[in-house]
Amino acid sequence: xxxxxxxxxxxxxxxxxxxxxxxxxxxxxxxxxxxxxxxxxxxxxxxxxxxxxxxxxxxxxxxxxxxxxxxxxxxxxxxxxxxxxxxxxxxxxxxxxxxxxxxxxxxxxxxxxxxxxxxxxxxxxxxxxxxxxxxxxxxxxxxxxxxxxxxxxxxxxxxxxxxxxxxxxxxxxxxxxxxxxxxxxxxxxxxxxxxxxxxxxxxxxxxxxxxxxxxxxxxxxxxxxxxxxxxxxxxxxxxxxxxxxxxxxxxxxxxxxxxxxxxxxxxxxxxxxxxxxxxxxxxxxxxxxxxxxxxxxxxxxxxxxxxxxxxxxxxxxxxxxxxxxxxxxxxxxxxxxxxxxxxxxxxxxxxxxxxxxxxxxxxxxxxxxxxxxxxxxxxxxxxxxxxxxxxxxxxxxxxxxxxxxxxxxxxxxxxxxxxxxxxxxxxxxxxxxxxxxxxxxxxxxxxxxxxxxxxxxxxxxxxxxxxxxxxxxxxxxxxxxxxxxxxxxxxxxxxxxxxxxxxxxxxxxxxxxxxxxxxxxxxxxxxxxxxxxxxxxxxxxxxxxxxxxx
Length: 550
What we know:
By secondary structure, this protein is an alpha+beta fold.
């Protein structure tokens, strides 16, 4: 058995004290009683005996003190153990509370040094300046819920542009095409590749709060110390100094984003911040991946640049390491091509054979799922009207079989894009910028029990033409009930307008959807009311009114 310290200490002290005692008695007798004058044997024994009694008394007193100290030590040890157990219980309870309320977390900013490890050990070799900044490979700021274990991670790098920013339109296009189930199995990471804190915060605050809270959106930015000195780069490929600096930083941006995304999901999809997407693009990607029988490295869902490139997450460390080897030499899409050459091309065979071998690792999907829509490049002063010919025609509205109704609006309609067409699923509705007091109204030919509604504004070509600060209102068919609401207020806790409408919802991020309390009874009309002036035109691309009969 293992002895406790409190039990061993008294025994050691007693064992050491007895030899010292006898030695002290012997020495004391020689000093106090020298050989001359001689003493009798009896006197010597009496004197020595008295000293021995005194030392024994001191030893007994010491022993008692040690025993008392041991007792107190055990008591304090027990108290400390109890305190530690209580602390463990408190921590465990708080951790459980955190786990149980993850879904309720508010959108918050977290500084996370050392908590999001990058998986590239050679990064310090290619970027030696990072040895001086231990936190430089960790995101400087992050918004989100730290979701992992998803099927698809989408990465969108974005930088400050001189004339126009397309990020919000890109996000709207992506999220528009995602079902609620798909949102649970993917992450969209926005990488703000700037070190200006105020700009980073302004962009982060402009994204969709609801999607950040749900976990589908994350926003990160790099520390300034991540970037090496880009002021004295060697000019290559005949590019100007500005272009060399731009493409070099771009390579570093893609590398940072890929390494952050790598542990979060099975596949990584590289996107850009100025694109629109096709309907059901997630299902199309999954289907194309499932069709592949051979080992691939990149699947291409757009023919333009670095848009719509799908990688296996397990391949990203190798890909990024190759990027970092040559980040100062060539653009990112060229580096991917060189990596494929290194992996499969035989220098002793011709270019045709090489292209054939590379096509086994880089497989093109048609039609394209992503279209470039930006005009102003992130490279200052550059205009680029790039379009993917394989993208096809954009679907600008979504049709539903809605119940018969009379439609009416105070908005100024643009050309042939009438409200009746969007209600019947024939086209979108497009109008000039709404002002406060404008409305869109659907009056049913017969009052109906409406279960749910969906109104979506904006479309793929004009995702920014949304309805802002607009409420959804319903008019109960029961006139007595309407009068009671106006006089006494709604018993359903909905605000009531002067003409008897109940305000049951509002547009958020361009969309209004929800269920209707069946206790309201039959509905005579649904109205969209504009509360304040809008700076942009308005498009309704989808109207769905689901009744109990449909």
